[in-house]
Design goal:
225 residues, mainly beta, Immunoglobulin-like, 6-stranded mixed sheet, globular, disordered N terminus
């Protein structure tokens, strides 16, 4: 009889008024012209997919030669637009405040793999620390995708307790394809496989770690079929 009935938190809401923030990440989604190419970018960095998968680089060489930790600007917009392998090093089991700033004239939508986040606020114009006065910290909804109005901002809280390399991107396929994305690296020094399994022994290496294996040829057709 209670199926579908109202619940104390019908939208999956939670109280986050007592959390301690570890870091604030401010992300501007915008258009860019890079070497004559029309692109989308985050903080004026348009994502360029490397030949080596990020998880391989992270596991074997801590990203060396593929990406550089601390290089992506998380509080400012680069003066000049450029291509880059955008990786943000985040604190494992830390509460992070992410501000999505939409510098464009159309609606944007952001998605984070691997997590649900708490949508605590939104507004017009440029986000400032004073914007926190308008946050709803007592019953924010939990989502993995959130919208950002044109010329406005949306703020979310997320507790990063799931180790991995997680994609954060615009859900508009055009913007995603043209570079409006980055990765959040959540690293746990504990090698316990219950938290994150290591690569299998028969992993196929590629990029800087080996040549990709070509697919086998199709079998010859069997007579009598």
């Amino acid at each position: 009889m209670t199926t579908g009935a109202a619940r104390p938190n019908p939208q999956g809401t939670f109280n986050v008024s007592n959390v301690t923030l570890t870091e604030t990440i401010i992300l501007h989604g915008l258009q860019a012209n890079i070497q004559g190419s029309y692109r989308y970018a985050v903080n004026n960095i348009s994502y360029s997919t490397p030949d080596t998968p990020l998880k391989l680089a992270d596991y074997y060489v801590n990203g060396s030669g593929v990406y550089r930790l601390g290089e992506f600007p998380i509080h400012s917009v680069n003066e000049e637009a450029a291509y880059g392998v955008s990786v943000v090093n985040a604190t494992h089991k830390g509460w992070h405040e992410i501000i999505f700033q939409n510098d464009l004239s159309s609606m944007d939508s952001w998605h984070l793999d691997g997590y649900g986040f708490y949508v605590v606020g939104f507004g017009d114009g440029e986000w400032t620390p004073g914007s926190r006065d308008s946050y709803n910290l007592y019953d924010p909804v939990v989502r993995s995708t959130v919208q950002v109005y044109p010329g406005g901002w949306t703020a979310v809280y997320v507790f990063l307790d799931n180790p991995g390399m997680w994609n954060l991107r615009s859900q508009h396929l055009k913007r995603w394809y043209l570079g409006q994305e980055l990765y959040i690296r959540v690293h746990d020094d504990d090698p316990n496989p219950a938290k994150e399994n290591p690569p299998p022994e028969n992993i196929l290496l590629c990029g800087e770690f080996g040549e990709p294996v070509a697919p086998g040829s199709a079998p010859e057709p069997q007579l009598g079929w």
